[in-house]
TrEMBL record:
One of its GO terms (molecular function) is sulfurtransferase activity. GO terms for cellular component: cytoplasm. The active site is at residue 96. Mo-bis(molybdopterin guanine dinucleotide) binds at residues 235-240. It comes from Collibacillus ludicampi. This is Sulfur carrier protein FdhD. NCBIfam families: fdhD_narQ. GO terms for biological process: Mo-molybdopterin cofactor biosynthetic process. It comes from the Bacteria. The keyword Cytoplasm applies.
Length: 252
């Protein structure tokens, strides 16, 4: 559709798919995620790891996907029932006189890691990784309706994932890591969207010390990144970027 006297043109357009996936944990429904129907094993395992339900790959007995029905069946060694109430309650605590941990859920307290890596990255490498993510974002280019994330070395993308949900892209990355156990001390998460506190916590749970995005962070994400030892680089566009936290990891 065009303004004014320009003609209307009828044509087909590719639309992002919205797909409900119900995770069945040891025979009991645990959660339903709305997602893009790709890399579903990674998503199911990464989500459970992010929630603190599983901590190590050895805890997983089997994962199977019924794409037609929209179910992911996960069987783990621990058969004790999981309390959904536990995963929805806020944890009220303090840290060095601060109250930031009052924003964490119980499972966030268990699973968010403080990052101590001294690995560094150059400004040019950050620009390069954002460029690589954009080049690989074919589904975004055709639909404009998805987010992208990638686990990267300082020079290249190791694995990238796409989803309609920002958080799902990171759960897919986490699930991939659970299956492959790549060393993380020198790795970077490159991200297409806004860095919220929830996004930052997922990066901390994966165990990566830097997130680079073309978009902005929130104030709570910056507070948490400062506390958890994570470098946030935002607004990586053109020839500029903003380094918000732990700038000692950035070098020219």
């Amino acid at each position: 559709m065009y303004r004014g006297d320009s003609p209307c043109i009828e044509k087909e357009d590719e639309i992002a798919t919205e797909y409900p996936l119900t995770i069945v944990l040891n025979g009991e429904e645990f959660a339903t995620l709305v997602c893009t129907p790709t890399d579903l094993k990674d998503l199911a395992v990464g989500f459970l790891a992010s929630e603190g339900v599983i901590r190590l790959p050895d805890e997983i007995i089997s994962v199977s996907i019924n794409e037609k029905r929209g179910f992911a069946y996960v069987e783990t060694i621990n058969k004790q029932p999981v309390s959904l109430e536990f995963y929805a309650k806020r944890f009220i605590g303090s840290c060095c006189g601060k109250s930031r941990q009052s924003f964490y859920f119980h499972n966030d307290v268990k699973t968010a890691k403080t990052i101590t890596t001294r690995s560094q990255i150059t400004v040019d490498q950050c620009f390069r990784l954002i460029e690589l993510l954009q080049q690989q974002s074919f589904y975004f280019q055709t639909t404009g309706g998805v987010h992208n994330a990638a686990l990267c070395s300082q020079d290249d993308i190791i694995v990238s994932r796409t989803d309609i949900g920002r958080h799902n892209t990171l759960d897919k990355i986490y699930g991939y890591w659970m299956f492959h156990r790549i060393p993380l001390k020198d790795k970077v998460i490159v991200f297409s969207g806004r860095i919220s506190s929830e996004v930052l916590l997922k990066v901390a749970k994966i165990g990566v010390g830097m997130i680079v995005s073309k978009s902005a962070p929130t104030d709570l994400a910056l507070d948490m990144a400062d506390e958890l030892g994570i470098t946030i680089v935002g607004f990586v566009r053109g020839e500029k970027m903003n380094v918000y936290t732990h700038p000692e990891r950035m070098i020219r």
